[in-house]
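Example 3.2
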Amino acid sequence: MGASVMSDDVVIGESPGPLIRARRDPDGSARMELRGPWDIRSIRTRAGVLREQLGASSGHAARWDLTGIADLDAAGAALLWQVWQRRRPAVLALKPEHEWMFDALAALPAGELLRPARDMALPLLRIGGAVLALADHAVAMVTLLGAVVLDALRLLRTPQALPWREISANIYRTGTQAMPITALVGLLIGIVLSYLSGEQLHNFGADSYIVNIMGIGILRELGPLLAAILNAGRSGSSMTAQIGVMRVTQELDAMTVMGLPHTVWLVLPKMIGQFVALPLIVVWTDIMALIGGMLGAYWQLGLGYDQFLQRLPQVVPLANLWLGVGKGAVFGALIALVACHFGLRIQPDTESLRRGTTQAVVTAITVVLLADAGFAVLFSDVGM
């Protein structure tokens, strides 16, 4: 930036950019005259320099003349408001069309008015808001579940009215298409668990107990949990996104106009599909995890495949398998319920779709873990 001195005047800046003219009136008071454009395009690369020059050139009681400004927008007005320390100068001349910007800035609350007490209460307010939001979601989910149950009881009298094609499609998407990823994860988890457990058991000379650990751990806990968590991340997010896109494209509104209930055509098929498919995926995951455990036991401890398979039904009661399968059915219905709940609450915008899908996955996994803890307490004496 260049500066040229003209008698008692100092002009800072270069045309066609923003210009600052600092001069002295006959009575000795400072006068600041601004000219040229003072909009975002003109000041965005020089905002800091202009702020320093205005602050250095003007005194506390300077007179300001903004009538020479060609273009002034909110960015330029905010810059001047900062130089004035958020107070309007005593003497200010400006164009009538620029008056409203400084009136709006003067009406903004000052940051110094915030009290520390409000900051101390902010965590409590956030906790209260989170509790209220949790209660709202819980009530909405129970309401949705009640509507689905009532629709299912009504449709039992007319089974031909059930959306069988939608149910079949959901079983295929959540069951058959999920087999490769669940098989891979189950196999790897079985190998890892067998290796880690086998090393510790070998130190105590209890190699044969690897079958007990693998059998009960996989059939009772790991198999259902792995299948449910993978299902929540894969199928649950897909369900929420599908219903959310239907909200964005106004397909849900069209269904309402046509008299097609959302619970019958969207929620019920997904819950039935999950209720049927996830127990089968649990059995599939159990098989692959046990194969991985058998491989790990052979590589780590030298335990033969035939020994592993012969000992497994002897030391692991069949009730553990049925408990795991039952868990899978409940987990599947819960995941579908949570996914549909968040899908139906999505607003017709992409940000709400992103947020709703994320919340659905996190909530579904949390609900699965809570339900698993409940199963562990209620059926602690079963299969042991």
